[in-house]
Structure formats: C-alpha cells, structure tokens
Amino acid sequence: MESNWIPVADRLPEAEKEVLITAVRKYEDGERQYIVTTAMHEPGNISEYDSRWRWEDIESDEWDEENDCPIIPEGWWECKHYNQDDAWDNPVDNEVIAWMPKPEPYHPKEPVEQEQEQPWKQSMMNTFLGGR
User: Fold this and answer.
1) Is 28 exposed, middle or buried (CB count within 10 Å of its CB: 0-12, 13-18, 19+)?
2) Rounded to whole angstroms, what are the CA distances from 129 to 118, 123, 124, 132?
3) pTM over 0.70, yes/no
4) From CA 48, how far away is CA 120, in angstroms rounded?
5) Model confidence over 66-105: pLDDT tens digits?
6) Closest Cα partner for 15 from 99, 97, 82?
7) 78 - beta bridge partners?
8) Alpha-carbon separation of residue 100 from 30, 59, 123, 127 (angstroms)
9) How far apart are CA 95 and CA 39, in angstroms?
10) Cα radius of gyration (the chain)
11) What single-letter DSSP state applies at residue 125?
12) Rounded Cα gap, residues 33 and 41, in angstroms
C-alpha cells in the first residue's frame, strides 16, 4: 500500500490548512506512541485577526499593533471538531514527524431520508391528544 505521508523535514503544509499528522509521544521508559490526528501548522507570522480560525486567549510573545491582537505562535495546532467550546487553540506538544492531506469526506449516493411517521406513533399521539 502506497503511503501519502510527507515528512515534515521535506516540507510543511500550506499555513492553516487542516491535514492529518503523525506525532510521536515519547515516554521515560523509551516507549513511543504514534498518534494520528487532524492539525494545522502556523508559520508564526499570522495575526489572530488575519487567521481563518477562531482563537481564544492565545499566549504569544508577538503582537499585531495595527489590529491590536496577538501573532499566533509558530507550531502545530490540533483541530478539534467536537470540543465543547469550539476553540482551536490546542497546541500539539509532541514531535510531529509527518503529515498528509485529509481525504474527502464520505457522501452517500442517495440522500438520507427523514424517518417516516410510524403507524404506532400516530396511534399513541391520537391517544395522548384525545383523537385530535
């Protein structure tokens, strides 16, 4: 099977483009865990104002005076789609070794139809609502 992984030593993805990454978590006992997740790379020269993502309380040593907001620090940032506050500012604190473009999402051939009214459901509603 052909691998589409691109080592970060070869090149980085387009800034702020969501991709799949492989990161390595290293433990004190020498064990390694390889993690695949979605993330984006920030080059360190995009302000919070100019970013296509929403940032919350980002800590940065650099400031965009014109727009009165921080410059997003260089690094990898995990893209979480179901976290409670929809914040995107979750730094990847393990070494990222490779990345690849995300595949296109699955789309069913036929649209998923809404559930049709069940006869038992109508009967219960009639009983509950007194036959209205």
Assistant:
1) exposed
2) 16, 10, 8, 6
3) yes
4) 54
5) 999 999 999 999 987 776 665 556 889 999 999 999 999 8
6) 99
7) 39, 90
8) 27, 28, 53, 57
9) 13
10) 23
11) H
12) 21
